[in-house]
Design brief:
There is one protein chain. By secondary structure, the chain is an alpha/beta fold. Among the domains are: 195 residues, P-loop containing nucleotide triphosphate hydrolases (Rossmann fold); 150 residues, Helix Hairpins (Orthogonal Bundle), CATH 1.10.287. The protein has 21 helices and 15 strands. A six-stranded antiparallel sheet has the order 2-1-4-5-6-7, with helices on one face. A hairpin with a 6-residue loop joins strand 9 and strand 10.
Length: 844
Amino acid sequence: MIPIRLIINNFRAIEHADIDLSAVSLAAIAGRNGAGKSSAFTLAPRFALFGDVISGVSLDALVRSGMSEMSVTFEFEHQGSVFRAIRTRSTKGKGKSTLEFQQRVSDRWESRSAEKITDTEAVIRSLLNLDDETFTASSMILQGQANAFTGATAGTRKEILSQILGLNIYPELQERARQRAGLLNIEIEKAKDKLLTLDERLAGRVVKEVELRSLESQHSDVLAAVVQAEHQVKTAESKLAVLEVKRTRIEQIDRDQAVISDEIATLWTEHLGHTGRLERSEKILVNETAILAKSTELEQINHRITSLESRKPELERLRCDLAGTEAELVQLGVDMGTLSSRISTLQQQLAVREALRQQTEAFETESQRLRTFEDKAERWNLLQGELSTLFSQRDREETRINLEKRSLSDKIAALEQQEVHIHDNGCLPTCKFQQAAAAAVAELPKLRRSLEELDWSLLNQLVQSIAEKQTEQLEIDYDFAAHRACKVRVDELREAAIKFAQLAGKDELLQQLERQHLEQQARKTASEQRQQDLQGQLTAVDAALAPLLNLTAQATELQRWARLKDEIGAARTDATNARERIAAIDRELASKQERRDGLEQERKDLFLDTLEYDVLQLDLGRFQVAQQQRRREQAALVEQIGGIKAVLTALDADQQERDRISSELEPKALRWVRYQTLIKAFGRDGIPALIIENAVPQLERIANEILGKMSKGKHYVRFETQRELKSRAGVSETLDIMVGDWTAERPYETFSGGEQLRIDYAIRFALAELLAQRAGSKVEWLTIDEGLGSQDAEHRALVLDSIKSVASRFKRVLVITHIEDAQAAFDQVIRFDNADGGVEVCVA
């Protein structure tokens, strides 16, 4: 895509602007702040193509203040043709939007719009093979976002790259395949269950017929048993009716006795309660003199305890002071130990300075060798992937030919047997068997020709291709063991190189640590003296408070005597009341016992008359159970007989159902196997892994090509997609950026601001180009919005040189800036000047 022209009316701050870009290649966009530079070159094209593209801002808010209608016309060249998108917005009434998409054919514009705006937008996305997010990432570096990728964490970089590559669709595809495979598996399992059920039914036909005859014989026997059981039940029920009245009276007597027993138990409980209160009251009254003496002694002890308790705050204060001093001494000991350890470590590090320098030089040499090995490994792996594909194709073709050959051979052998039987069976030529065999044998010549003419050409081509790829792989001369050894050597030397770089300034740090150690030694001596003073004061206070524990124990023992002092008056009243109530309860207990004895005698007389009741009840229950059992047996037999007849009637239909299910099962199983293959292909280790493995080297190659131009070959970048785990064996997924120069390779974060800017732009340009290539729609247009304002003069010059060095990769490069010395660095300048309430655009 190459922009040609922008016509803007009442869009944000711009009243009217007609911008012709057909003659622009590399230009600065100049103008005062708020003139509409960013609106014209970053928002207007996106609005024209994709509509609502500003998060949190409505379409009506894009209309210039005081106006009710706006429009943006964006004209561009794409794949050799010229197109334009015209989008309008009116705030009148409920608001209205329009979108017209046209293509220039000869000297006229022809519409390519659909009926609805959303459908027209789909036409634009289909033509460009881009959505708004991808279009913006491909053609624009928005303000403050040059390092949006490099400045992110490794995990965030991996997520951004996955989004750029469109890998978020594969989990959805895998889930769809898994769902369809699951539904198909359910259908297959249901079919299998149905077949098992039908097989069981069809296998039991003979058993069901024998069972039917047996059940009809049993039904006659059970019918006679039902009649006998009904007669026994009626006889037992008439005898039980006579005894039921007497049992009812016995039950009433049992209820009356239970009520009387409960009342007696309640009275005895009350009797025991009053007896206990009487005994306690008498004990208190007997010990009245001792209780009063103990209460007086408790008051004296409490007075002494109060006096001693007043000194406890002093004891707590001394303990807190002592604990703080001891904690301070412990902390000083820890700090001094830490300082000593750091001093010792620094002395050891400075002692091996020369050895670290030598290891650093070796690290640089081995790093150069490692890059050579990695180039060979990349070519080796690409060929290995092609070989895997060829091996798979060869195996499938070989399997297909063998299956076809076996099928033809089997048919030929069968027909040859029939041919032998034709001559040996002695049948007449008019025999139907003889005629069918002769027709089948006539097919033999055609089958033999098909066997001889099997097509082996594709298999031979695949075998030849495999041999060529293997020869090409051997010519690379890649030694995996040497590569691995070199990488191990680089990893071993990397830590020494880092340590050597960190030695600068450690001599001064050592002197500072030694001064701190002497100061802490003096503080420790003063704290030890204070600890001794506090320990002496604490010992004196502890001795004064020693009797407090014994006095507290005595007070606790005397407390129960003090509580009894308050109960002496109530004890006299309780003793009198308890004696009176005990006498009344004894009289009531005698009356209720007499009533219970009379009921017991009446119950014994009735019980002798109803001894036969339980036996009759058991007999009746047994007879009823037998009657119900016989009736259930009769009903079950009738139901079984009818069921068996229905089963025998349905067996023919079951056989037809089984044949149908069997014919449908095999195609479903084949489809299920195909879905399993798709689930594996869409998984994390399938197609997404192959895309990442191919995209990262491509991104690295494009970024290094651009960075080489920016830095004159000084810098290169390398992406690490895996990192060895520190806590356990294995690797974790990452996307670290390693940058190399003429001295060493180190993380992106360790480079200076100017160097980081070049790296940011190189990777950002590479991402834009990679995204366009992945989308299959190259965007030959780059807009950089205010990428210079936050830099000083030195870094600004570096950024300008970087932009110019990659300008040849794009048809249009536009740099929005308000800095005059930056504008002067461009041969072409597009100026935004306010005139008559609008914006006058001048291309110089």
